[in-house]
Known about the structure:
By secondary structure, the chain is an alpha/beta fold. It contains 13 helices and 13 strands. The chain has two domains: 1-116, Indigoidine synthase domain (Indigoidine synthase fold, 3-Layer(aba) Sandwich); 129-303, Indigoidine synthase fold (3-Layer(aba) Sandwich), CATH 3.40.1790.10.
Amino acid sequence: MTLVVSEEVQEALAERRPVVALESTIIAHGLPRPRNREVAKELEAVVRREGGVPATIAVLDGRPYVGLDKGQLERIATEDGIRKLGHRDLPLAAAAGASGATTVSATALLAARAGVRVFATGGLGGVHREWTVTQDESADLGLLARTRITVVCAGVKSILDVPATLQRLETLGVAVAGYGTDRFPGFYLSDSGHPVDWRLDTPGQVADVMRAQDMLDGPASALVVAHPVPEGAQLDPALHARVLADALHACEAEGVSGQGVTPFLLDYLVRHTEGASLEANLAAVRGNVRLAAEIAGAWARVA
Length: 303
Ligand code: PSU
Ligand code: MN
């Protein structure tokens, strides 16, 4: 399957200007319509404002695109039948001529293939709370263990089993650092309640780690830069705890499974917090995209 890298992204890469990969699952399946469409455009604008080039990634009619034009971004945000594609789905979508939004795993794979090193998202997938029964662990983790990319995220989604996910990242050999904090962020919350072993405070320090990864030439794993949502923009922790417990019950009661679980829980939280979870999610994503653009800038200077 051949990648279609937009001309703008190709030029930026050739001239060593900063490029930031953006995922599309959050647009197609993670945010309510019609807000998702505005957010897709806004996130690209944030990268540009920081002097970078955005590369939103998705599959359209079986072709993987790195960098979408306006019409393509519009399709991801509004078209019915846009699938959710993890990395294992990419060849299947290609052969079927299907269109789909890419998760962290598929986005990271395609970005790395295109030579884009920095990627921003909301929260990573991870180990679900019912793992002992369902064995539901996002393919994000395994792919990040095998892909040299820097992912800026607000930790892992708080709907997950956070300590189990941190343990899996350790076992898989994925580097994790808090950005400006010693605490692992909690997606909608600034602090998940768990510590991180390493802390980075500037984009230049992140770029130094990326360079050291390449020099060491160990397994081609990722660097997770865990960047908390500002405390003033987080979801009220008590509300979060209450609504999340209800959401997990509802998910089980309705028999939601597989790829449907994450979108179901995110949507439940939006509806039962009067949109407050959506605002916290967006504040986290915006902050991550801005930081990713700064890191891509620092990387462009040293790489
Ligand atoms: N972050 C968000 N919203 C999302 C996601 C991340 O703020 O919708 C998506 C990402 O694409 C991530 C996916 O890869 O959820 C994980 O889904 P699953 O648990 O099915 O692997
Ligand atoms: Mn899953």
